[in-house]
Amino acid sequence: MADIRVLTGPEVEQHANRESCWIIVHGKVYDVTDFLDEHPGGSKIILKYAGKDATEAYEPIHPPDAITTNLPVEKHIGAIDVSTVAKVVKEVTEEEKRRQALMDARPPIDNIINMHDFEVVAKAVLTDKAWAYYSSASDDEITIRENRLAYQRVWFRPRVLRDVSSVDWSTTILGQKSTLPVYISATALGKLGHPDGELCLTRAAAKHGVIQMIATLASCSFDDIIDAAAPGQIFFLQLYVNRDREITRKYVQHAEKRGVKGLFITVDAPQLGRREKDMRMKFVDDDAGAKVQENQKDVKKDQGVARAISSFIDPSLSWKDIPWFRSITKMPIILKGIATAEDAVLAYESGVQGIVLSNHGGRQLDTARSGIEVLLEVVVALRQRGYFPNPNFEIYVDGGVRRASDVLKALALGAKAVGVGRPFLYAFCAYGQEGVEKAIQIFRDEFEMNMRLLGARTLSELEPEMVDASNLTSHTVMSPQDNLYQNTYQPLAVAQFKSSKL
Amino acid sequence: MADIRVLTGPEVEQHANRESCWIIVHGKVYDVTDFLDEHPGGSKIILKYAGKDATEAYEPIHPPDAITTNLPVEKHIGAIDVSTVAKVVKEVTEEEKRRQALMDARPPIDNIINMHDFEVVAKAVLTDKAWAYYSSASDDEITIRENRLAYQRVWFRPRVLRDVSSVDWSTTILGQKSTLPVYISATALGKLGHPDGELCLTRAAAKHGVIQMIATLASCSFDDIIDAAAPGQIFFLQLYVNRDREITRKYVQHAEKRGVKGLFITVDAPQLGRREKDMRMKFVDDDAGAKVQENQKDVKKDQGVARAISSFIDPSLSWKDIPWFRSITKMPIILKGIATAEDAVLAYESGVQGIVLSNHGGRQLDTARSGIEVLLEVVVALRQRGYFPNPNFEIYVDGGVRRASDVLKALALGAKAVGVGRPFLYAFCAYGQEGVEKAIQIFRDEFEMNMRLLGARTLSELEPEMVDASNLTSHTVMSPQDNLYQNTYQPLAVAQFKSSKL
Amino acid sequence: MADIRVLTGPEVEQHANRESCWIIVHGKVYDVTDFLDEHPGGSKIILKYAGKDATEAYEPIHPPDAITTNLPVEKHIGAIDVSTVAKVVKEVTEEEKRRQALMDARPPIDNIINMHDFEVVAKAVLTDKAWAYYSSASDDEITIRENRLAYQRVWFRPRVLRDVSSVDWSTTILGQKSTLPVYISATALGKLGHPDGELCLTRAAAKHGVIQMIATLASCSFDDIIDAAAPGQIFFLQLYVNRDREITRKYVQHAEKRGVKGLFITVDAPQLGRREKDMRMKFVDDDAGAKVQENQKDVKKDQGVARAISSFIDPSLSWKDIPWFRSITKMPIILKGIATAEDAVLAYESGVQGIVLSNHGGRQLDTARSGIEVLLEVVVALRQRGYFPNPNFEIYVDGGVRRASDVLKALALGAKAVGVGRPFLYAFCAYGQEGVEKAIQIFRDEFEMNMRLLGARTLSELEPEMVDASNLTSHTVMSPQDNLYQNTYQPLAVAQFKSSKL
Amino acid sequence: MADIRVLTGPEVEQHANRESCWIIVHGKVYDVTDFLDEHPGGSKIILKYAGKDATEAYEPIHPPDAITTNLPVEKHIGAIDVSTVAKVVKEVTEEEKRRQALMDARPPIDNIINMHDFEVVAKAVLTDKAWAYYSSASDDEITIRENRLAYQRVWFRPRVLRDVSSVDWSTTILGQKSTLPVYISATALGKLGHPDGELCLTRAAAKHGVIQMIATLASCSFDDIIDAAAPGQIFFLQLYVNRDREITRKYVQHAEKRGVKGLFITVDAPQLGRREKDMRMKFVDDDAGAKVQENQKDVKKDQGVARAISSFIDPSLSWKDIPWFRSITKMPIILKGIATAEDAVLAYESGVQGIVLSNHGGRQLDTARSGIEVLLEVVVALRQRGYFPNPNFEIYVDGGVRRASDVLKALALGAKAVGVGRPFLYAFCAYGQEGVEKAIQIFRDEFEMNMRLLGARTLSELEPEMVDASNLTSHTVMSPQDNLYQNTYQPLAVAQFKSSKL
């Protein structure tokens, strides 16, 4: 291996334009001149850091090895002598000050009593860009909301007078012990929301015996996460399959070697969805946008963070690839993103160990149905073929879960466990590791309560008859109102107080 | 029995800290030092009264014998010489002044024309804590609202041209005469809302021939209530079964001895639900909360009033206990909180005299169905087995009733009577006994009107064909809106006046 | 007949208290002292006019002969010498000034393009008392709104490519020609809204060939209306049956003699409904109310205008009375207020000539179904028995109609014609006779348009297949929202303008 | 041909009143005195231009040959010497200034990311009159909104793990190539919204291979549009059939000669609907209105732009006319405006080449169903008779489409292509030709995305199983709320921040 060239700040600063553009990332210097027009996020954002240290902007939204993977070796110029780089005095914007004030004014964590509380706090303390990336979903965001609403269409049929002095909501997922019938589902770019990123999840999960699914697009590198694990801590891996299968093979085998217990291959994202909140963020962010656009019509435009980071995903992934995956790993394989009974049957017959009924948190095909709704038809179809129940094939659902009662509904209808993503993400954005622990504790409280009230002492006592899901497939759209009538009608009023003191 | 030691105020005041904590309740002095950490409401609230008279705070939220039951005899220090206790000059808060002003501005009671009016007045004149305790329900408060909405899904099919010159809505409940097909259902902690507490109900019920169900957690003691009864006044008893069955046995047998005519065993509350409005009240109340929490992470936290007062309830209660109840009392036994046809059948077969289809006013398992909806399946299941109709097994429903028309719907579908809780509670919070009387009178007016208009001269003429319940099991959740479209659409406007004087 | 005593103002003024209370109405003096406590509207309102001329207050809310009917002859003191009565200088209230300003600012009548416009204008220019009386409905006003909404659940299936150069929407109702398949339904107390009262309807109806149904409780007397008729003008009569059948007999026979062509007996009002808007009006109106109530608990209380004027209605009316009606008149008899298939069958079998499927404009039994919904089951039931179609038995519906398209839906489903009440009432409150004419013209325009677009050239070409009524019996109540989720979700926004000028 | 008389401005100005009224249009002078009372838009608007050049007002709302067609030749007075006409200094109104400011503040076109964005911009920059004309629909505007909402009732059932590296959404429509399964549907009076009118569509369509349907009521003349076409550009023609069939014959044959590839005969508009927004515009516009109306009750009143321009349409058009159309052209004939399965069958049997399931953008019969809903029953009925699928009979739908996903739903259910009208119209109102191109590009992006996510590589892979349309025929109207209850209920709140900084 050749000696690494060491550069100084002033040397790098000379390459600060379109003709020659160097940047510093994680202490290394790269020549990105030829890459400018290929950058999925557009050239402008790179040029902003031309000749400077871009690490801070790079870190939260790129997989750690993105730059080394994308740039040919000859563009890796060398290392930087950090002492020679002029410190940028970062100006604190009004927006940033407001965020900091809100951070200081957060409710004490003991006042957090449900998952929504975390979301409200996260919304307040996150940057607009981070909030847009996390909260956005595709097109009209129908499906993300449907995910939540679908649970409102399932009602309980609780049983009484069973001795519920002790109730137990622990389970196994892919044969691994879990203190909750819930796993932490993969979410990307955790450092946008908290400096420790996904490690907040890892540490809280370790402490409370919960399984974490590591995202391909995590801000923290895979190894950083595994290195932070407690002894015996269980992880699953979420996989976006790369166009270059060799990269995928290495990644999967490395994960297996480091002890990951399940491979969740994302099958609903041959291309990432159009997420308009995320797309709009680009325009807001970009004050010079309008001017530039007038003159540079053909410049590649940013389509939000999601698009920027996902160009490596292979849209050709198909059922034919499953045997190959089987050949490169002994980990159980789960297909994440099944959305019909037909594909659930194909999945079972392809020999994988499970499926996640998911629409990717509403971020992919809008007006796709919720996982909990799809569960109904999947269980019927698998049962008809004798594929369900089956200890070697597990069904999970994700999307929209905010209460332990949601989880219990999914389990009563046949799911083995439920994936929870954004609530844990918002928990650490709001309160770091402590937030995630609190979230787990709330789930615990709710499981205890709801299982008692439902008359189920263990998860195995949950049964379809405990829920009324007869309204689950009803998608109701209110007919357009007769606005003239509605506006003319004068609603009833209650009794009036003597003065207007009320 | 030993002489009772008599203490002075200054003596008690010396025990005003964590190390030695005495309090005065109802003229007795107790050493609660060891009990501080076991107090379901947390130690802080007790410490506030360390060395002082805590009666005023204690009274409305504890069963009268709570302190004697929970403290070992040796901690009963003695009696207090009242003349030696320094009078606390209670400062009147702004909040309290506002409440008093609202109390003065209440609408004249003759302006009250429906149950909602009582609730609006109660909401205005109650303390925030009382309102939170009374009005709260569990989790997302879906079920409490569903209770009301379910009645909106039942429509009348009124018959005409029947001679309705006289109509009669009196009935019997468990063989006892009632002027209304409605009983006053048990609600707890009445003194939070009115100094006379549940006695307001007792007195109004006596005057109008209505049956009151006494709550285990009433602020007034059982005997106070019975002592206030008119000759021949009918009571039922609501029972939370104690972990210590001996306590329960005595309580039940005492009630029977004092003439109670029916025992309503609550079966839907092995643990009280998480009621977030109630839980949040603790944090608001507790200005030092945040600070304390930083340093005392493991201190037992308050989870609202409901949790604080309910730790004695036995979660192991089961069908196996029914014969024991049969063995200790001759009162008719009713299971309160049945929520499925399956359990209704089990109840019938267990030999009890009736069931209340109830979800505990939405305060227990959220997204459980309403009593009126459950009634449909219960009647079908019992009828199929030849268990219904049966003069020795009555079905009641409660939850969400605000109009006599609601009651008539339940009766048409098979209920014998309907329990009404909060409306009577709010009536006395707003206007004391007079409010309850007014509520009864409104029901009477509405029964007369609606029975005439429905074409039923007596309750026995109510029949299933008088209602259309075909939409009752439809739980409709509106699909997420296309917000962009909705916001872009411009509604029609009516004709404009010449100027903006309108 | 004895000479009539003539009194002077000062003489009458001496009887201005509870002990002796005389009032002047229509130039006659009455001693109402003994009647004070029997007055359905309460004594207080009469005492306000003790010793004075009460005509102005009396007129709009009493049938013209109310006072002579209710008072024994010996209390008819005599005539008044008008010249001796002190003119009361009526003070113009702020409210009255506001109303007058609004009256002046009314939209020009040519700007009125639909029925809602009339209602908006009427609401603005009516007194609060009149608006409350006209617009109110019973209990929660569910049914009055349902009446409108039910039409929104029926959708058109229009046929194309039929030669619709000429379309004709004239018809016959009970064999009488009508230029519209609509009749003016009975509404009470027209003078509350316009000094000419129901005569506005009469004159407009004459001019445009529309049939008016005269209300028993019209402000104008029956004869005044008939006297104002054009030659050959057709009327129907709405009948509230009196407890004293002799009064009813005379009234009916007088109507027949004066040429009325159909007798519509109201069967859904054995007692008038509790209309809370109307009831509340009393309290607002009555500034001394609260004080009085404190001391006079047992005084008969006002329950709104509706109750005050309806005490004569006979609640004993039943199917057994039908033959008697047949015996006293040759007019076709129609039962107004049928609400079930069962009663429609009974009506047919009782030998009457038709029925109105109606819930009394939502003013009687709340949560009764709409006429258009009931029509579905009625047509099925009659058809099954071979009773429908039948030229000698017509079915009408009323309630909620605001558009010609509503009427066409009802006709397609089997109605012969549709009753329209409030829209015509509001039309004359807003613009007098001219308003009613305009309303008729709007209907005409809409009939022409909609029949062309529907592909029906005559009313006989309307057929059930032209509507999709499959959703008509669906009563949808939205499940309670997950408010925490709804409030946390941030809706999508559209593209932003560069500045906030939009 | 006689010499054309040339007149001067002052000569024309002498004919500026009701007795003699000349106007200048497109450089010609016309005597419209006798036509004043026949003008469908009323005489007043003409008199405003009496003796002056009316071209600017005339142009956007009349077919170019309207004046020559309607006026007898002898009223064509001659040509005008333009140099002699006094230039009218047009005053710029406040409204106009506001519009211009908004035009300047439009979002940069790159910030436009969906169809709604165009509508919002168009709404801001259009005159009120243009917005009213474009956006309005008939009666209560139920159907126009239903068109959008119906798509929300169809949900996707996406298939995964299909190799979707390349997806293709091109198709043929009536055998003509189209880069999108979408054609630009006819909308009228384009110059109201942009000076280039429909030519914006023509130029953008040419550039992107999209088919434009030319409207009979386009502001640009048919020939202007065709003259602007690119070589080989494909057009369809929308036809309102004239009462004078000879005019229609010439128009159709001229179109065919100029290369139009399909004749879309509008069959749902024997008369144009009552569009209240459009009708109200007249009153607002017309400040002297109220005054005039007082005195001139019988003057023909304006009923909005739509009525004004449509009097030539023949309401007698019927199935019997189809053979005649067949006889005058070889173009494929499509019936636009079919709304039932019955008429779809008749259309097929009449030998035409296709149908558009349409309700005219909600502008005709209100509460008619949406095209996408009608598609369900049409496909069933045609399939039952062996008429579907059939390469020689294509089904299109239009109305309410805003997303490529909507189009894919229609195609999965059997449509060959989808018509999109207002979105393209609003696109050019907002940004001219460039807007239309952007709209096409957005559709392209969305098709790529959604086909990948749906698992359909070509349009032929779309199949009914890819959608769940089971809720499509459900028209849900929410029952009237219990407002008293709703207003009394206090929603849950989330955790509070320490101060009100949030």
TrEMBL record, chains A, B, C, D:
Entries under Pfam families matching the protein: Cyt-b5, FMN_dh
The reaction(s) this protein catalyses: (S)-lactate + 2 Fe(III)-[cytochrome c] = 2 Fe(II)-[cytochrome c] + pyruvate + 2 H(+)
Organism: Cristinia sonorae
Protein's name according to its UniProt entry: L-lactate dehydrogenase (cytochrome)
InterPro entries the record matches: Aldolase_TIM (IPR013785), Cyt_B5-like_heme/steroid-bd (IPR001199), Cyt_B5-like_heme/steroid_sf (IPR036400), Cyt_B5_heme-BS (IPR018506), FMN-dep_DH (IPR000262), FMN_HAD (IPR037396), FMN_hydac_DH_AS (IPR008259), L-MDH/L-LDH_FMN-bd (IPR037458)
UniProt record similarity statement: In the C-terminal section; belongs to the FMN-dependent alpha-hydroxy acid dehydrogenase family. In the N-terminal section; belongs to the cytochrome b5 family.
Domain Cytochrome b5 heme-binding: 4-81
Top EC category: oxidoreductase
EC number from the UniProt entry: 1.1.2.3
Annotated SUPFAM superfamilies: Cytochrome b5-like heme/steroid binding domain (SSF55856), FMN-linked oxidoreductases (SSF51395)
Quaternary context: Homotetramer.
Cofactor(s) of this protein: FMN; heme b
Compartment(s) where it occurs, according to its Swiss-Prot or TrEMBL record: Mitochondrion intermembrane space
The keyword Mitochondrion appears for this protein: yes
